[in-house]
């Protein structure tokens, strides 16, 4: 096929004018949103660079399509191709609840060690929202993507493994104070210092590069001290050790309070803010979910573990119009590998109806274009999105919440975006 490979040299991605980019169409609504979003991306690139740049899509299989064609859900060839071509984009893949296979989405992230799940959440003018001032929500979530309860270390009730584990916990680990009925299933939650460091490093570096004001570490460390609590401690340590005078941490604030009192600590923080230092702070996950609704302006970049990040990203998406418009990227900043990905699922009840909003996948494509350094094409799509939504030409999810909207199909929304590029 024509086009060239993207390469990585010393961690820097080298993008030819005609890169080959593998894509996974996805299950359920995947085919509809891929068709619509990929056409808009192609048109934006064509217009931005007058034909000098062009993406050559290369389909790779995963999910139901892969299973039907090859008998496998996630063929090795798909992983090898993404490894080889460095950057890929995907639609959603089905994960049955309970039995069956584990998440292919999670497997892709783990196999390629895409440790940062980056999900920017910001409002587009005119998008219907359940909050009064959706424009106050402008955050970028860095969700740790390779550890936590998502590691998939779980044991089903009644199995020999779970019996062994309970016996071990009760008889060797001193877990005698809680009840372990025989019907217990058990999941393990690994959180490491290395895993925390690389994620938090990426989040702080992003905040510095993008001129953001703060990084909030979201955790439930009051309850899970050696996993979520340790995440917080390691995050503060990393911030102070590696980013020195570019940051001011709440750990530092606490030390100043202890030594010199609260007034001096407040002064130190104000001074740091005035100097443009990134404030590194933390919030416990439950109150954080309240505060993103009541005081969204106080939060900017967010660094958190896998499960918290999953919840927080859908909750925040709701504030700016829902998961139909919330994009995402899974990135390994060390190897350069990245998979850009819609944050929503396969919405099976809408599959094949050409109905849903393609914006989540499309805006993931915009993140991809920026990652490639093709900002002009990315800007074109975002500007067109502003214009199209302002004209109230929208898919069903927005139309049902907007007065006087024209509801269009998934493909027609793509047509309207192309017209407004
Ligand atoms: N990264 C991935 O690939 C992900 C995969 N999944 C998987 O997807 C499957 C279905 O999961 P489910 O929990 O139903 O979540 P989904 O995200 O698929 O759908 C939930 C609801 O969200 C709304 N929605 C989703 N996508 C869109 C869109 N593009 N435009 C407008 N509205 C949208 C719809 O709301 P309404 O009904 O109000 O119209 C839909 O019913 C599961 O197998 C799950 O594991 C889930 C999340 C991420
Ligand atoms: O893989 C899945 O089924 C769910 C993943 C998910 O919810 C997410 O990536 O936000
Ligand atoms: Mg999710």
Describe the structure using short key phrases.
alpha/beta, binds NADPH dihydro-nicotinamide-adenine-dinucleotide phosphate, binds magnesium ion, 421 residues, eleven-stranded mixed β-sheet, single chain, 15 helices, Isopropylmalate Dehydrogenase, two-stranded antiparallel ribbon, 17 strands, binds 2-oxoglutaric acid
Provide an overview of this structure.
There is one protein chain. This protein is α/β, with parallel strands linked by helices and 421 residues long. It has two domains: 1-118 and 324-420, Isopropylmalate Dehydrogenase (3-Layer(aba) Sandwich); 129-153 and 188-320, Isopropylmalate Dehydrogenase (3-Layer(aba) Sandwich). It has 15 helices and 17 strands. An eleven-stranded mixed β-sheet has the order 4-3-5-15-14-6-7-13-10-12-11, with helices on both faces. It has a two-stranded antiparallel ribbon with strand order 1-2. A two-stranded antiparallel sheet has the order 8-9. α1 links the parallel β3 and β4 (56-59). α10 (285-294) runs parallel beside α11 (306-319). The model has no long low-confidence stretch (mean pLDDT 95). Bound molecules: NADPH dihydro-nicotinamide-adenine-dinucleotide phosphate (NDP), 2-oxoglutaric acid (AKG) and magnesium ion. Magnesium ion is lined by residues 310, 314.
